[in-house]
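User: I want to check something. If I give you two sequences, will you return the structure for each one separately, not as a complex?

Assistant: Yes, each is folded on its own. Here is the first sequence with its structure:
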Amino acid sequence: MAANIITSEDLEQFKWEFLELIKGHIDQRLGKVKPEIEDRQWLKSHQVQRMLGISPGTLQTLRINGTIPYTKVGGIIFYDKKDIQQIMEKNMKNKRNY
């Protein structure tokens, strides 16, 4: 059985993502409108995970093997939305031209 090592960096990232998730739920309950992902250039890990439908571990693997470029500021990892879209288009199979 493979062991997963959790670093303090992983815990820091989890903390910020968890706080952002809770804040989003509170804002939603209070009726506050949050900017849509479409309007943002920089996405956080949880937004990319939701956008691609992948787990945190899969996203970490994509970062480690260089598939997805990222920028780290403090303990938060950001992804350029344009990079994610380019990766999706580059890896698209059976693209149809309408």
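And separately, the second sequence with its own structure:
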Amino acid sequence: MGKNILAIDQGTTNTKVLVVAPSGDILARGSQPTGIYYPQPGWVEQDALEVWGCTRAAIAECLRALDAPDLAAVAITNQRETALVWERETGQPVGPCVVWQCRRSAPFCNQLKMQDLEPFLRSRTGLQVDPMFSASKLRWILEHTEDGFRRAEQGELCVGNMDAWVLWNLTGGAVHATDLTNASRTQLLNLHTLKWDDEALDIFGIPVAALPELKPSGALYGETAPLDDLPGGIPIAAMIGDSHAALYGQAGFMPGSIKATYGTGSSLMTPTSRPVGSERGLSTTIAWARETATGSHTAATYALEGNIYATGAAVQWLGEVLGLDDPGPDVEKLARTVADAGGVVFVPAFVGLGAPHWKEAARGLIMGLTRGAGAGQLARATLESIAYQVRDVFDVMQSESGAPLQTLLADGGASRNDLLMQFQADILNCPVLRSTSTEISPLGAAFLAGLTVGVWADETEIESLVPPRDRFEPQMSSDQQEALYAGWRAAVARTTFDPNAVCSPAVG
């Protein structure tokens, strides 16, 4: 058996691949951008064959950087909730991937709410009814596939999230499976039994014959089929959603740990010893699951999670509006040209607001503009909007998790921004510890796979491999912090409006 782990991170905008050594060092990297398409307002989709092509190219790029990869196992982590359906016999998708940001299934979700089914679904699956989660997307795809429901019932079609699609292709179509973290984001998994929930399946109309097999995050899924530079017969030993993998890669194993992943959107997650029902807009989910030493049952760690729709996406939007060449660093440079946002508040509710608000009708707004406001103030307000949204979730998580949350572990692309990280520490009034690694999700997946095949012995050994962290301490007075946050809350309250309302001019 080899000694290194090949970790695949299939993300929303790109696919990364790493080879990770037993020391935790990254020996090689590959990366390929992934197209994302907006066919009409509120719709977001990807081409499944393009996604697999990018994944395959990233694997080849990574492996060609090494003379002898010496692989012990493969790990997969992935963008979550993005759903697709493909033909079991041919492996051909029946349509596009419906991306996690997409709102096309909102009318069906609204029907479920009107039928008062949300409390039941939350009690079983831990998730509020929202188009973000996979089940309504899968239903939409089947509805728009000729004879879709019958073909799914007959097992002719496979449904799944991106982890199942990547696994299917890596095994040459031999394995259709998903892990419990991805399954817990579908709104079809019973969190208490760790099985597909029959009543939830009936509500969404998803036939069980089309669903993937359920497995722990750290488990043997199958073996690779020969693929370019990737040899056949390598065990695929872990699958886990990207946000969960980031928490694992940060060694946030115990209650009281909390991490924020700053990506296109953002996810805050804290582990819990049991399912904790949220009353204030958080999701209950599976953090990760591993087979016991005897393999007799699955040991699951639960989590509370808050999903924010637009964080890095807000920076990207502003960069495009201002014509910036490289939005990430260029927005930070603009923000540093001013001392503060000058009273400007930006709420990036492009597709509504996620946790803890769950306001589908919310739309973005910029408040507090004066003649003196310019690009610098807008840039600063955009970065601050990320930190405010994180605080919205952090405060609720603090009250519901049952464990004190004293520091925030940060990772993801936008966490590279020092100005944002300092403002985050200020507005939370707690230290922020930022991972120095930009690849914490694939590292977390690699750690799980290595534990499964025996590269590492236990989680204590994993803790010694976690990359170093930068520390940001709060520096803002509590009065200033609360005044700024009050301005944010006032802006959020104004984001819901009726675009069809007609305002008549006053007559006098």
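Because they were folded independently, the notes below concern the second chain alone. The longest strand covers residues 298-308. Residues 162 and 477 are 44 Å apart (CA to CA).
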